[in-house]
Amino acid sequence: TFFCIFAAALTEPLVSSEPPPAVESGKPSVSLMHDSTDIFQPQILGAYVLADSTPVSLKLPAHAPYLLIGGGTASFAAARSIRARDPGAKVLIVTDEPDLPYMRPPLSKELWFSDDPAVTDTLRFKQWNGKERSIYFQPPSFYIRPEDLDGAENGGVAVLNNRKVVYMDVRGNKVKLDDDTEISYDKCLIATGGIPRNLQLIERAGEEVMKRTTLFRKIEDFKSLDKVSRNVKSVTIIGGGFLGSELACALGRRSTESGLEVIQMFPEKGNMGKVLPEYLSNWTTEKVKKEGVKVLTEALVKSVTCKDDQLEIKLKDGRVVTTDHIVAAVGLEPNVDLAKSAGLEVDSDFGGYRVNAELQARSNIWVAGDAACFYDIRLGRRRVEHHDHAVVSGRLAGENMTGASKPYWHQSMFWSDLGPDVGYEAIGIVDSSLPTVGVFAKATAKDTPKAATEMSGTGIRSESETEDTAVSPVASDTPSPAAENKDDFGKGVIFYLRDKVVVGIILWNVFNRMPIARKIIKDGEEHADLNEVAKLFNIHED
Ligand SMILES: *[C@@H]1O[C@H](CO)[C@@H](O)[C@H](O)[C@H]1NC(C)=O
Ligand SMILES: CC(=O)N[C@H]1CO[C@H](CO)[C@@H](O)[C@@H]1O
């Protein structure tokens, strides 16, 4: 069956592209990942119950050599790279979420396509290669308990759940938690991610509207939207970016089974209009419509009201939509709550904590993931909200925290699929407001995401690429490429330009060539003829 996944990210590099951790558990972690009987339930480590059932408070460590604030992907990636470079390291992750670190992308894609009716409990999903895994990076046995951190001979990673860091004393190298506990540190990472935005007019529309609105980010949001979508007749997604389009397609597929009406509305002219040039955005919109989604483009919401248990959405151009539930997928607000007490600068253009190319904010303090506004030595100041960026920035911060002085230059990438037949990979600044040059060729049956993963034998396409694999590409002698047919975007390369220099590249149904794209961006040269550059990707070859 055709299905449509906008995958904003790689979902696996943390487990399969690196060796399993050496000491933390008796079994190698890889075998645990594929053990079909284990279900990685979150552990709540904030309190535990003794045999006589008297709840006691934990004796938390007063000091953590490595303190990581936030329990998401960037934090977990940092913990891993710290442990890899400093095998005895004691790492404490403090997170206000109740869960152990997990990956977010499957919450808006693979989990929706699971055949398992219990998927909201198991949180396991099938990768492209058919193998199943949990969204949790590691099972509970990987971690040690916070109260055991002090005495752990080989160190380890501990997660303190349901606690929030509310204050940083930078001079004293310590933080205060929401229950007034103080923990001192040697090195600290802030990886606090962000909070989904809402439309102000929904926030102001009152409790009845808010009750029928989902902001999507966490495991709980997946569970509640799953439930809502089984109990209502109509869901409207506001937002045309990755998250909105992913969820529209996921729910759209359900519409064919259950008669659920799925509406998606956004101000742009087409899906992913902020990323794709207009002709491709238009083409993508048609794909989404075929998934059973009623797409309303150029839709600006004027008001939302609740009447007789239904929501009425009025648009500025007079259109009116009646629906049961709203999903607002209108972006992320980076969480910079600690800026004031920590004396950290928040970037006024991009939001997030300003850090240098090594992701350092101040001495002993680093920032990674969605909350970091970093200096990209190639492309300038940026903030990136993709999973792969959380992985590479967390890893880099961890390396720098353990003493490697390594500037951030590894461009994170992301990929997105429109089902098994169409997919793309992107790197750098892909912003449709930049001038673009697209070079297309006819696709063959081999040029599909499914074929690409089957050939590589992995669940994901670019998993093997690392910063070391950038090869010198060889230009092919094929004739000058040009779009043979304007409507046939079979496969191709789209260049995004700033001051005549390529700052972003989308590989459209062209797979396993990301190292070439990476090198072009790294070189940062002006190119007189991008058709010549496109030849490096050999799109006419096979
Ligand atoms: C995209 O679609 C809109 C209609 O929704 C149309 O006005 C516009 O011309 C299309 N653009 C391109 C480049 O095909
Ligand atoms: C601990 C460590 O190696 N830190 C380095 C991180 O990167 C900066 C460069 O900005 C170096 O000055 C630090 O020594």
From TrEMBL:
- Domain of life per record: Eukaryota
Where the record annotates domain FAD/NAD(P)-binding, the positions are: 67-393
Please state where this protein is localized.
Answer: Cytoplasm, Perinuclear region; Mitochondrion inner membrane; Mitochondrion intermembrane space; Nucleus
What SMART domains does this protein map onto? AIF_C
* UniProt KW keywords: Acetylation, Apoptosis, Cytoplasm, DNA-binding, FAD, Flavoprotein, Isopeptide bond, Membrane, Mitochondrion, Mitochondrion inner membrane, NAD, Nucleus, Oxidoreductase, Phosphoprotein, Signal, Transit peptide, Ubl conjugation
Q: Which GO terms describe its cellular component?
A: mitochondrial inner membrane; mitochondrial intermembrane space; nucleus; perinuclear region of cytoplasm
Region entry Disordered: which residue ranges? 451-484
Is Ubl conjugation found in the keyword set? Answer: yes
Q: Which cofactor does it need?
A: FAD
One GO MF term: DNA binding
Q: Which reaction does it catalyse?
A: A + NADH + H(+) = AH2 + NAD(+)
Identify the stretch annotated as signal peptide in this record. Answer: 1-17
Q: Name one GO biological process term.
A: mitochondrial respiratory chain complex assembly
Q: By its UniProt entry, which Gene3D superfamilies does this protein fall under?
A: 3.30.390.30, FAD/NAD(P)-binding domain
- SUPFAM superfamilies recorded for this chain? FAD/NAD(P)-binding domain, FAD/NAD-linked reductases, dimerisation (C-terminal) domain
Say where the protein is mainly found.
cytoplasm
Q: Where is the Mitochondrial apoptosis-inducing factor C-terminal domain?
A: 397-523
Q: What does the UniProt function comment say about this protein?
A: Functions both as NADH oxidoreductase and as regulator of apoptosis. In response to apoptotic stimuli, it is released from the mitochondrion intermembrane space into the cytosol and to the nucleus, where it functions as a proapoptotic factor in a caspase-independent pathway. Release into the cytoplasm is mediated upon binding to poly-ADP-ribose chains. The soluble form (AIFsol) found in the nucleus induces 'parthanatos' i.e. caspase-independent fragmentation of chromosomal DNA. Binds to DNA in a sequence-independent manner.
Family membership? Belongs to the FAD-dependent oxidoreductase family.
Complex and partners: Monomer (oxidized form). Homodimer (reduced form). Upon reduction with NADH, undergoes dimerization and forms tight, long-lived FADH2-NAD charge transfer complexes (CTC) resistant to oxidation. Also dimerizes with isoform 3 preventing its release from mitochondria. Interacts with XIAP/BIRC4. Interacts (via N-terminus) with EIF3G (via C-terminus). Interacts with PRELID1. Interacts with CHCHD4; the interaction increases in presence of NADH.
Please identify the protein, giving its name as recorded: Apoptosis-inducing factor 1, mitochondrial
Species name for this entry? Oryzias sinensis
